[in-house]
Amino acid sequence: MIVAFSVSPLGVGEDVGEYVADAVRVVRESGLPNRTDAMFTSIEGEWDEVMDVVKRAVAAVEARSNRVSLVLKADIRPGVTDGLTSKVETVERHLSE
């Protein structure tokens, strides 16, 4: 499965980069395939391991903020691996045609 999620503290002002970095650090240390862009972090793995990482990423932000926003989107597709790369490669192949 692939989960794209965004976690952000609320009530700390507009500059939230250091809080988001705490969450991304948890994701990167998990060892699961992941990507971070301007809006979301995507992570790929089995349900329990991915959700555990999301929970720990939220906790990292929550440790420094009384309120946290979480947006999550999941692509649950058993048997598919390397979706983070293959989905993008498919789009790029179609663009180059």
From TrEMBL:
Any Pfam family hit: Thiamine_BP
Boundaries of every Thiamine-binding protein domain copy: 3-92
InterPro entries: MTH1187/YkoF-like (IPR029756), Thiamine_BP (IPR002767), UPF0045_domain (IPR051614)
Bilayer-crossing regions: none
Family membership: Belongs to the UPF0045 family.
Protein's recorded name: Thiamine-binding protein domain-containing protein
Annotated source species: Streptomyces violascens
